[in-house]
Structures are given as C-alpha cells and as structure tokens.
Amino acid sequence: MAAEEGARRLLGTSSIWLCCLLLLGRQEHGAAAARSGSPPQSPGASVRTFTPFYFLVEPVDTLSIRSSSVILNCSAYSEPSPKIEWKKDGTFLNLVSDDRRQLLPDGSLFISNVVHSKHNKPDEGYYQCVATVESLGTIVSRTAKLTVAGLPRFVSQPEPSSVYAGNSAVLNCEVNADLVPFVRWEQNRQPLLLDDRVIKLPSGTLVISNVTERDGGLYRCIVESGGPPKYSDEVELKVLPDPEVTANLVFLKQPSSLVRVIGQSAVLPCVAVGLPTPTIRWMKNEEALDTESSERLILLAGGSLEISDVTEDDAGTYFCIADNGNETIEAQAELAVQAQPEFLKQPANIYAHESMDIVFECEVTGKPTPTVKWVKNGDVVIPSDYFKIVKEHNLQVLGLVKSDEGFYQCIAENDVGNAQAGAQLIILEHDVAIPTLPPTSLTSATTDHLAPATTGPLPSAPRDVVASLVSTRFIKLTWRTPASDPQGDNLTYSVFYTKEGVARERIENTSRPGEMQVTIQNLMPATVYIFRVTAHNKHGSGESSPPLRVETQPEVQLPGPAPNIRAYASSPTSITVTWETPLSGNGEIQNYKLYYMEKGTDKEQDVDVGSHFYIINGLKKYTEYSFRVVAYNKHGPGVSTQDIAVRTLSDVPSAAPQNLSLEVRNSKSMMIHWQPPPPATQNGQITGYKIRYRKASRKSDVTETLVTGTQLSQLIEGLDRGTEYNFRVAALTINGTGPATDWLSAETFESDLDETRVPEVPSSLHVRPLVTSIVVSWTPPENQNIVVRGYAIGYGIGSPHAQTIKVDYKQRYYTIENLDPSSHYVITLKAFNNVGEGIPLYESAVTRPHTVPDPTPMMPPVGVQASILSHDTIRITWADNSLPKHQKITDSRYYTVRWKTNIPANTKYKNANATTLSYLVTGLKPNTLYEFSVMVTKGRRSSTWSMTAHGTTFELVPTSPPKDVTVVSKEGKPRTIIVNWQPPSEANGKITGYIIYYSTDVNAEIHDWVIEPVVGNRLTHQIQELTLDTPYYFKIQARNSKGMGPMSEAVQFRTPKASGSAGKGSRLPDLGSDYKPPMSGSNSPHGSPTSPLDSNMLLVIIVSVGVITIVVVVVIAVFCTRRTTSHQKKKRAACKSVNGSHKYKGNSKDVKPPDLWIHHERLELKPIDKSPDPNPIMTDTPIPRNSQDITPVDNSMDSNIHQRRNSYRGHESEDSMSTLAGRRGMRPKMMMPFDSQPPQPVVSAHPIHSLDNPHHHFHSSSLASPARSHLYHPGSPWPVGTSMSLSDRANSTESVRNTPSTDTMPASSSQTCCADHQDPEGATSSSYLASSQEEDSGQSLPTAHVRPSHPLKSFAVPAVPPPGPPVYDPALPSTPLLSQQALNHHLHSVKTASIGTLGRSRPPMPVVVPSAPEVQETTRMLEDSESSYEPDELTKEMAHLEGLMKDLNAITTA
Fold first, then answer.
1. CA-to-CA distance for 258 and 242, rounded, in angstroms?
2. DSSP string of 612-649, one letter each residue
3. What are the helix (H) ranges across 1012-1125?
4. Sorting pLDDT into bands at 50, 70 and 90, what band is 1182?
5. Three-state secondary-structure class, residue 394
6. pLDDT of residue 1243
7. d(CA 953, CA 867)
8. Which of 316, 467, 497, 1037 has the lowest CB atom count within 10 Å?
9. Radius of gyration of the chain (CA)
10. In whole angstroms, what separates CA 1098 from the centre of its chain?
C-alpha cells in the first residue's frame, strides 16, 4: 500500500508540474501574441508631460558650536510629494535609529546636541538633500558644509604696551577663524563696550583710536564657544602724556591680502602711530578713495578701511598712506574677489525617441572658473562612449535607450560654493510624434526624425548594403535603392549602428535626398560593429536592411615605454643611463633612441643605442640633464619613457669671482666686494670664498681670510694708515678652491674722514627708463674725505618731490618700480650724512610705452584618460594636438595635471607638473571618484584646462571599525536586544555586511564569541533569547568586497532582571502532533483540468520514467552485490551491538531537548531562538567570499534520488511531516567562515524540533546541511555527497553562502557508528539513512567522504579513508527523517551553528531526541567506491521494487 500511495503521489506531483508548465507556456504565447498584435499608437496619442520636480529650499553652509542644535533646511516640490533623504560626506544617513538626528516634516534635517571633540567629529562635514519620487526619479540639492567651532586656541595673545595720548593702540588676540564671532574683550575684568573709537577687527584684534587716560588699564580677551570660556593673558595698556617731541611714524597694524566672495564685507586693517599724530588716507590702484561720500567705504577707528557688499570691481591693490607732516609711510594689500557659480543657461526638458542623440546644455560662470559634473537620478554620470561632455559643460547622450529617462542635473562648483540645475528627459514611443523640441537639444544626426508622417506606402529595405571602405576608425557604407522605389530620388536614409554586444544603437542620416553612402566616424580599432539601413519617404520610415557585420582594422602595434630607466652621474662630465626591454610591442625591438637635454634649454639631442645602457660624455659640470628612451620596432618608434633628471658631479670652480671692488672705509679698514663666478663655471654649490691680501711693499707676507656661505663682502680691519694693500678672492666648492682674481690695490687714508659738513654733489647720475620702472645708477662725490651716510632719491611726474627713497651709502644703483608707461619723470639724487643733505643732481626720463602683446593661448591637451592601477594610484595619459603626429616633445613645454575628488564637495585641486604625455598620481583614497584635467605651458603661453577625465580607485578592506556602537533592550522583550551602529569612517568600498560578535567573557578568545552576521548595509540588528541579568560584550566588524575590517571596541550591556519572563534554559513550546503545515506537492493552486489527451500523454510519460528508474536500480544493485566482503558483515554486526547497548535510549516523553546550537570550544548546549519569520532578511543576500564564491555543483542526481525516495515515502507519520515543515521556517543563526576550497559543498549543523510522537528514536552525530550539493564519483554509479572541512574561524577571512538548494532537504538526524579515533587522520564517515514505520527495507543514500585537512578538525566532519587497504569501522543503523519536496513554496534556510577547530581530536557528541523502538537496519554507509550491497539487502530491495511495479500496473489499468 505504501508503494502504491507513493507512486500515486509521484504521478500526481508530475502531472501538476507538467500542467503548470503547459499553462505557463500558453500564457507566455498569448501574451506575446497580444504584444505583437497590439494596434500601434496613433500619432495623435497622448504625450506624457514633464513633471515639475525641484527644490524650494536648499541647505546652506552653517557654523555651529558644540552641544547646540542645528537645522539644515531642505524642501522639494513635486506631485506626489517626494521622499526626502540626507547624505553626509556622500553616504546616506540612517535617521530611523539615530537619536540625535531627525527628519523634520518639511524635509529639513535637525541635529540636536552637536558632538565635536579633537578625535570625534561625527557631525562636521558636507550634507546633501536627496529627493525621490517613485517611478519618476531623484534629484539632489547643493552640498552644504556644517562647520563646528573647534576648541578655543589663541594664535596670538595681547602684549603689554604704552601709547601716547591721542595716538592709537592695538591689542592682538587672534584665534582660529571659526571662533572669531565668539571673541569679546574686557577692561579691568568688565565687558568692554565697542563704539566708533573702539573696534574689534575681524581677526579679533582690538583697536583703540585717539587714546585718552581712561583707556589705560588691564585688558584681556575671552572666547566663549559653548564650553567654559577661555581667557587670554591679561596685559596692561599704559597711556603716556604727550612729550611734545617728534616720534618716527610706524605701523602698528598693516593691511594683509584678502579674498572675499561677492556680497561679503572686507576689512583692510591699518593703524599707524607717531608724533605728531598721523592721518590715514587710502588709495586704490593709484587713485584716491573718497571714504566720506561713499556709502560702501567706511573709515574705521585707527584708519582701517571697511568695504561692505563687495563687488567684482572692488578687486585690486589698496594703499594705506600714513602722514603726519614730517614724513610719510605706506603699506599695500591685494583684495581678490571671488564669485559663487551661477547659471547663464540651465538645462531644458527634452522629448526624444530611442536611438537618438541629445545634448543637455549648461553654461555657468563664477570665479574661480567652476567645474561641472552631471548627475542622473542622483548618481554621477561617468563619461563614456555614450555619455560625453562637449563644449566644456554640455552633456551629450548618444544612442538613447529607455533606461536613460529621468532627471539630469548640472552641478557647478568652485572653491566658493556649488549650485545645481536640472531637467527631465522623456523617451516617447517611436509612433508618438515629438510635440516640441528645442533645436539645440538634438544633434544633426537625428533632427530628420521630427517631420510628421502622412498615410501612404512605405519604402522597402535598401539593397546590397556593403562596407566599401574599412579603416581603423571609420567605415564607409554604400547601398542601392529599395526595390519599391528604384529611382529613389526623394528618399533619405538612416544608418543605425552599434557595437557588437551593446544594446545602444546610434543613428547617422544622409545629408541630402537620393544620397546612398555614409561615412561613420569616431569608431574604435579592431572592433565589430553591426549596421542596418532604413529608407524614408514622405510617409515615414520603411523596412530595415538585414544586419551587416563589419570589423574595423587593427592599429599598428608599437613598442611600449622601456621600463626601469635609470641614470646616474659617473663623473663631473658624464652620465650613465640604463633601461630594460619594453614589456609590450608587436615585433622584435630593433634599436633604441636616447634623448637628453640640459635643464632650462629647449634643445634636445639624441643618440642611437643598440644595447640597454649608454654613457654620455662631454657634459657640463654640475648641470642637470633630463633623459628619455624610445624603442623602435619594424613599425616605427614606440611610446617614450617618462623623463628622468640627474645632475653631473660637482668640481672646483673653473673661473674666478667677478666684479671685485675695494672701498676704503677709514684709515684702518677697507670693505671688499665681489660677485660669484658665472653660473656655468661654478661647477657646484659655492661653499665660501678665500680672501688673500698683502702690503704692496711686502709681497711675500700674505694674510688669508675665509668667508663661509654666500657672503659677497668682507670688512678687513687692523690695516696701517696710508698704506697700499693688494687683494684677491677665490671661490670654494666641496671639491676645492677655484682660480683667484687678479690682485686689486687700494690705499688706506692717512687720517679718518670728515663729518663736519654735508657731502658734496655725486660725481655722476645715469637713468635707464623701462616700461614701468627706471633704473638709476650713480657714482659717489669726488671728495672722498667727507663721510657719506647714504643717498636720497626723489622722483615724480614733472616734479622730483612726490616720492623720496633713501638707500645705503654702499649702494650704487636703484630701480624705481610701479611707474606709469609713457610718462615724464624728474629724478634727483643727494648724498647725506649726519649733518644733512648735500647738493642735488637732477636727471629726467620718459618711461617706455606698453606695447608687449599678450601671448596667444595654446590648445589644451585632448584625449585625457584615467587608468586605475590600484586603490591609491591612477595613471593619467593624454595627447597634445600642438605636437607633431608622432607626439614627440622637442621643446621646453611642460604639462600641469590637476585632480580632486568630489567628496567633500569643496575639496581643492592638487597639481603636479610633467614633461611627458602621462603622469602617475599616487596617494589617493580608496574607492573614490576623482576627476582629472591637464593644461600645457610653453614659455609664457598656457592653454586652458582640458576636458575632465574620471576614475574611481579600487576598493580596499575597511581600515576603521564601525562607529557609534550602541546596545539597547527591546521594549517588552527583556531577552531581546537591539544593536545599532554607524558605518566605518574609512569603509574604502561598498559595505556588503557586518559581523556581530558577542560573549559574556570579554577576555575570551575571539573564536569563542558568538557570531551574528548582518547582510548588506543595514545598521541595526536584533539578537534574541539572551540570558537575563547577564553582562554581554559586543564587537562589530565591517566587510566589503575586499575583506574584513578591524573590530570595534567591546561594548558592555547587561540584560534586564527577570520580570515574569521565561528563566534561563527555557525554550519555546513544541508545536505538537496536531500541527499540520501545508503539504507541498499535494495540490497546486495553479492547477487546472486537462483534456483526456493530455492526461493520457502524462500517464505514458510517468510510466516510462518509472520503468527506466527500476531498471537502473536493478542494474546498480547487481553490480554492487559482487563487491560485498565478509569484513563488512562483521562491521555491521559490531555497529548493531554498539547500538543495542547504547545508554541514551529512553522514552521520548522523558527527554525533550531544546533546539541547540553547538558551542565549538566547550561543547555547551545552549537554547536557540525560533523565529516565526518564514523568510528572514538574513538569508536574502549571501555573504560574499573573499576570493570567489563556492561553486555550486550539479545536484540534478540528488534531486532524482529524492524524487524517487519521496514516491514511496508519502505514508510517513504526520508528526514527522509537521516537524519538517516547522523546520523550514527557521532562519539561520549565523554563517561560518571557511577555508577557501570552492569546489567543496557545505556541512553545517542545524537543530531539530522535538517530536511528541513516542515512536522515533534518533541519535545524531553527523549533521547534514540542507544546502549540500553532490559530486559525481566516477567509480560508482551513485552520487557521493562531499562535505567541506572547517577551519579555525579566527584565522579565516572567508565566508560561505547559505543558499537553499533546489532539491529536497533531508532532516539529518541520523545515527552513525562509533569511529576509531586513535589516528587523528583516520577515516570518519557520515551516512544518510532512511526508513519508515511501514517498510522493512530502504534505499541507500549518498555518503559523505572528506579527509580533514589537519588533525585539529571539528567533530562532525566526515573524512576520506586513507589510501591503501581499506579499513572498515562498524556502522550503526540510523533513521533519518525525510522531508517532502516543496513544489509551491520557497525553500527556507535552517539555522546553522558555529563549528570551530578544537585543540584536540574529539569523538562525536551524541544528541538524543525521541525515537521509535526496535528500529530495523535498512541501509548503511558507502565506505568508498568499493562499497556494495549484501545479498539479503538485495533480496529486500527486489521485493520492494516488485511491489512498486504492481502498484504502477494497477494505476495504469485503472
């Protein structure tokens, strides 16, 4: 009866499956027919309209202080209302479990209690508002910077000072810029009130003008920024009475250069003191500023200038001039004005059809010039073959597809700020006419599609489409007219083409009617393209020609750059250069060309080299040279190496110092001056000079003085009066002394010089005018007996008294700067000493006109490409159109590469110079998008920046642990806790999961902690069934595609005390024998009646399958019978005896073990939670492996076995089926990291529900995985289940997929014979055995064989027997519980437990569950490929199969 019932179940199940498949096929066929037969949309069909979707309010940059609250405003408009989210530093914020950050109803972000410390700044950063409307798209706001004022720190503190009454006083108190608003001053510990006379500068400095006696006292400044106030030093300001004598003018505070944004205010400080009290006036670019009548220019206390509401016209050079009637001093500063990005032209909404090319236009202005990036539905658009940036800022999309629909935003940013503007793209069906379309948004290739069609015959397909010309980067197509219109004079044509394997199709239209050829440009070499042509008449587009497949020509392969080029100086005049053979190149290298050039020149020399090194002789000493190598093959020169620079060795100078001169100071000293040798003759770094001097009368008595460093003069003292001396000087390098100058003579004075009268007139005055300067040179007065202390130079337009400059008496020339071109200046020169100024000498000069033309800019580099090499390195390459075709650099041009990342948004550019057409950018952040651009400079000419290239560095394992780990108890469930955390600061890639470790012992080894995996980027997790009133410790570890990051610090949490809940050791109640879950395979909700013909066909198929299955089983059984040995009989008998005396037998009512997970170190049995959730989120996404995922093995044979087995197992007890159905709904407790052995399937332990039926006894030491696969053993007709060996979790970074298999899931509570454990490597085995109450015999199931990789293996891991003669262990019979095959349900994973590696080999741990009395032996393990059936087993099998045949015959005849 059991066999008959099993066969009926098999027939019913198969019938339902086939019916479902036939019905599904008919539905698909009907749907396809409906799609193909649907009437076309009429040209007048309704057109979707553009949806208003924009930001009403966007966040702005905000300054906050610690512990305060901040609101970042954001509001978006759309119908329906959009969903608002926030990003911080490019990462979405999880606001659900954040107790400090919350989303306000209007979309604004509210941050309470801002956190900021030296090492923890979670709130500071760049925030962006993201608005999303389902089925419509996403837009992003501008980025706003939230700055939190740091801890108070004084850059400079006030100092004690004295000031004359009526003058100004300055007390410095400079703090970091973000704290300036929180600075205030106190006088004598009382708050100081500010007014027109007492002001605080933007830096925090205090200025008091027109000081009176009541201004004296003790001053200090205070910084109050949320925490305790910080005080500066307290200093005294003394007010002195007016001494009624003159005092020199000096600046107490000078203006410094400023950068301001349009609309801000600028303060240029300027405070001067002196007696008489000076007045301050301001000039801008030589023009006086009127501060009295201007509303925007205000003169502050002390003379500082404030400019409110700065405009671009305010930029320039400002002069502060202090004058007290006796003298005048001035100081200057630059004011630079910047502007935030503004849109001159915003993107416009566009309608288009598929395959069209469109352009979104975007024009921006700002200072500095903004960079532009494009965003589609919130994601940055990466330039590619089909998304291109054209005309600097416009976005071109080629070959539109349906997925290109959405919202596109143009985001412009510079150092000042950023702005965004967006537009919507709607792609219409081909039969819907485009209502209105701006002509600028379509390219010329697709504008012909806009003409509305009229009704009439359409042309047939063009004939004989051929590629008449195929090159590396273009293809010329020709064709003949369609057969429907042989003349074809009024036909136009469209050529559709795409890369092979790419879904995007491009269009190129003919330029005029009747033209039957098109040249397709900008193709890639050695690439296959698919072409088709359609003809158009006044009625519309006709049939398409058959696809034409054409491959472009490959480009000639040239050698790559020679690697490892090195150069070193071998002497002061020679350098040796070495290199290696290029790694790439087509054809043998014929020779090399070595190029070298002296640094600073543009003349490059070259030499042909046949080997891998060369010595260049005849070079200049201590001179830097650059070298590069180009390899040649039969096709020509290859890619040049990068330039390397090296300097020849130094040598002694080869020339004497220049311009030696002697100045007699008095009767006993002389000053000697000189200039260094010419640079080309120094031959190294000048380390000093050697001075030799002697009396002219005693030439043999030479005195030597050494001058170190770069000093170019020396005072020689202790000379005799009225004596002639000879002097000479030589230069020194580290190599020695160079040649000396000729002897130069001078005579000391007989007596010292006179200073009782003013100097005489200088003996000569010469002027040399330039465009904006005049060089003045002179000679001293002829009478050398009068002391000259210096010279006064006066100059001005038409008068020499406008400006006066004083120089030292040693100076003989001076350059007057900042003059006007083409202006007449009068210049005067006077010598002076302590008595006064001498007679002036006059001269006049006219500056030259300004006629120097501006250099024309160069063309920017093109084809900038970014090649990612590693997680922190990207190579940038480009081409230069201003170079010859071979791209050989022969002049002194150089390239500047700049790069930045968009996170944070206001990151400044970094620059580097290169002299070749590539550059290696290092030191980048992992998994970060960078943009690169290049400019070229040659002499005074520079190009604009090139188009940007983008590259994202590779990922790296996380280098910081998850942040802000918190543990809270779940309300109402004291044994359940919720763990929350934030992503790591340095995730270095997309986080794919987390692992939560928890333990009651914080000092336990990490492999003893319990593991909870979290898949995906979730930031919260629940852990259930913890022990009450127990301290737990939690750590979290993040994972990305590259591996695991560091663990967080341990967080302690104590579970609440018991309050009416289940105590320790309690478990969930059993489901009971009355619980009957739905049986899969009994009824199909999708089934439907079939016709008699279909039923007969199904019946024939089922009977055929059954007969073939029986024949196969009989053949296998006969084959296996021949391989039986008597040794196996003994082994089976021994297993029976062991089982018979097992001490764990007992009544199932007495023993109800809980669901267990197995602690792998101490073998504790702990209760495990049973989640009613049938499809837990934990199993949705498997944890990826580090190297590669476990390869699933073909399990079709396994499925066949279980189908056959289920065909006669359908009469098992209802209890067993209920238990299995309950087990399917359990979610895995954890996933285990394994050794990287991809071909091996998984063995994992899982709990078993207790049974109320007292008729089953189970003893389990082999735990089978519900997700196991089977490998086919070539020596046996049966599939052999293989298990994966487990290694120490602490040493493993691997993780395993826990994916439900598609076959049935046997409950693996099987009994296994005790194994001999004397040899740690000895063979252990595990079998899957089956029987039921109604049957005496069963079918052998696959046996798992695995050899442990080392002796320290887990207890449940089967092993392969050692080679050599087989050694058999006796096996016990066991009764596994078979599950029903789930046809209409998803399979759910079973909870898995951690199985770690012990320090010793252990026998299997018995787990006792209710059992049936006197279970018969029905099957046994397959020990190896030699295993086979016993004769008595074969007899039972044959009897069973005969019963099956009878049942099948009865069914077919019924």
1. 36
2. SEEEE-SPPTT-EEEEEEEEEETTEE-PPPPPEEEEPP
3. 1092-1121
4. very low
5. strand
6. 37
7. 9
8. 316
9. 46
10. 58
CA 1427 to chain centre: 57
Q: Which of 339, 227, 4, 47 lies closest to 1334 in space, CA to CA?
A: 4
Report DSSP letters for 1197-1218, one per residue.
HHHHHHHHHHHTTTTS-HHHHH
As a whole number of angstroms, the distance between CA 7 and CA 1110 comes to 12
Omega cis (within 30) before 276? yes
Structure tokens, 557: 């392969």
Relative to beta strand 1031-1040, strand 1043-1047 is antiparallel
The residue type at 452: P
Q: Assign 338 to helix, strand or coil.
A: strand
Select from 964, 1212, 709, 1177 the least CA-distant residue to 115: 964
Q: What is the rounded distance in angstroms from the CA atom of residue 1258 to the CA atom of residue 1380?
A: 19
Sheet-wide strand order for 198-200: 169-171, 206-208, 198-200
Q: Give the pair of three-digit tokens for residue 1123.
A: 């391989």
Residue 1291 CA to residue 589 CA, distance in Å, equals: 49
Cα within 13 Å of Cα(358), Cβ side: 24
Q: What is the mean pLDDT of residues 1018-1027?
A: 91
Nearest to 1254 by CA among 1206, 1298, 1310, 1215: 1215
pLDDT, one tens digit per residue, over 1393-1437 is 333 333 333 344 444 444 444 434 333 433 343 444 456 677 777
| In contact, 1417 and 1436? CB cutoff 8 Å | no
Q: Taking a C-beta distance cutoff of 8 angstroms, is the pair 6, 1210 a contact?
A: yes
Residues in the chain, overall count:
1454
Mean pLDDT across 1273-1283: 39
* DSSP symbols for 252-321: EE----EEEETTS-EEE--EEEEESPPEEEEEETTEE--TTT-SSEEE-GGG-EEE-S--GGG-EEEEEE
Is 1297 buried (19+), middle (13-18) or exposed (0-12) by CB count in 10 A? middle
Helix, strand or coil, per DSSP, at residue 924: coil
Give the number of other CB atoms < 10 A from CB of residue 1442.
Answer: 12
Q: Is the predicted pLDDT of residue 938 greater than 80, yes or no? A: yes
Q: Are 248 and 327 in contact (CB under 8 A)?
A: yes
Distance CA(621)–CA(571), nearest Å, equals 9
Helix axis angle for 1431-1453 and 1092-1121, nearest 10°, is 170
Please give the helix or strand (H or E) that residue 16 lies within, else none: helix 2-37
The answer to whether 614 touches 629, Cβ cutoff 8 Å, is no
- State which amino acid sits at residue 41: Q
Measured CA to CA, the distance from residue 774 to residue 691 in angstroms comes to: 35
Residue given tokens 């490409």 in the structure block: 865
- Indicate the burial class of 853 (C-beta count within 10 angstroms; 0-12, 13-18, 19 or more): exposed
Beta pairing, strands 670-675 & 713-716: antiparallel
CB-based contact 199:300 (threshold 8 Å): yes
Structure token pair of residue 1101: 């198929």
Give the integer Cα–Cα distance in Å for 714 and 727.
12
Among 1281, 1216, 1258, which residue's Cα sits nearest to residue 1411?
A: 1258
1144-1168 confidence digits (pLDDT tens): 333 433 344 444 444 444 444 444 4
CA–CA gap between residue 665 and residue 668 (Å, rounded): 8
Angle between helices 2-37 and 1196-1207 (to 10 degrees): 130
Give 3-state DSSP helix, strand, coil % of the chain, rounded to 5. 10, 35, 55
Structure tokens at 1152: 């109800």
Q: Is the CB of residue 1305 less than 8 Å from the CB of residue 1381? A: no
